[in-house]
Amino acid sequence: MKMKQMGFNLVELMIALVVGIVLMTSITTMFVDTKVSVNRSSTVSNLQQQAQLALQVLVEDVRSIGSWAEFSGEPLADIMSPAMALAAGSCSLFPTAGGNTTATLSEPQWANWVEIASAGTFTESDCINDSDGAGYSLAANSDVLSLARIQGNTVTVAAMTTTDYYLAVSPQQTQLFKASALNGATNIDNAEFYPYLHHTYFVETHATSGPRLTRFSRQGDTLTNDLIVGNIEAFRIEFGVDTSIPRDGSADSYYLSNDASFTAEMWSNNQLVSARIYVLARATNPDLTFNNDANYNLRFTPFTPTANDNYRRFLLSTTVVIRNNIMAVTR
């Protein structure tokens, strides 16, 4: 008896192939969409974390800007301080103060200031750009913030590093000194000794590696360049000023760094009581699936990306109260 052979005819085979292609296309599309969604979520999450880290670092420093422990006496201009000249070529982010070629704005009398980089007189050739071939440059759309204060706990004279600076503090008198030359600081009645801290924050840009938040820390008479966090495209700070008479400790107005009404006297007369900090994070690589036409309000001329540059961004802001703000004179 002849058996009938079973199998697919051409029509059935074509139908099976079409169904298979449809299924494979659907699965592939779902896989790609899932991968894109995961990458997008990961990028946004990373930007949020980096913005939070940058904001946290800035908040901790800004909160204590101009903090000199229990000192509540005369303005810092009356502090006896050594020359504190930075080593030649350290960085011209610190121009000279008032035309004085021996004093720079890294000294405590002038150390607290903030300016938008594009409006400042900063040059970067000896401290940022290409000294190590890295190709970074100063971002023009961000602030440059310089601040000085004490840091940490009290130290003993024996525990001091001879090349570093310290502050001898009492309620009515304070003196900045280098540990290698005490200059009578240990003779101040009831003085306690604190390490002197001076930080300068700015944003660097790069053609391929992305932007980053950087900080110069003063170590003795030299500067160290610290990378704080990557993917930070800009930060801006506006300060709340108590203009009421008598002063009540609350901010009556907020001023941007390039506001003509924001004067040196506001810094030196303890009128700064709070600050609003804005941090804008940007992904390292563009996302071609993302149509970016947003403006980001950093409380200055809104930051507008290049038309549809496909970069994902994340904006974060907070307000912080300034503590113990015996302010140095700004420029």
Task: Describe the fold and architecture.
- With 331 residues, this protein is an alpha+beta fold.
- The chain has one domain.
- It is 18% helix and 29% strand.
- Strands 3, 4, 5, 6, 7, 8, 9 and 10 form an 8-stranded antiparallel β-sheet that branches. It has a 4-stranded antiparallel β-sheet with strand order 12-11-13-14, covered by helices on one side. Strands 1-2 form a two-stranded antiparallel ribbon.
- 35% of the residues are buried.
- Round the mean pLDDT to the nearest integer and report it: 77
Number of domains: 1
Q: Would you tell me the structural class of the helices and strands?
A: alpha+beta
Strand content: 25-35%
Number of strands: 14
Helix fraction bin? 10-25%
Count of separate DSSP helical elements: 2
* Biggest sheet details: 8 strands, antiparallel
Question: How does the overall form come out from the CA principal axes?
Answer: elongated
Segments where pLDDT lies below 50 for 5+ residues?
A: 327-331
Specify Rg, calculated over alpha carbons. Answer: 28 Å
Along the chain, the helix and strand elements come as: HEEEEEEEEEEEEHEE
Could you tell me how far the N terminus lies from the C terminus, measured between alpha carbons in angstroms? 109 Å
The quaternary structure here is: single chain
Protein name: Prepilin-type cleavage/methylation domain-containing protein
Pfam family, one: PilW
InterPro entries: PilW
Keywords: Membrane, Transmembrane, Transmembrane helix
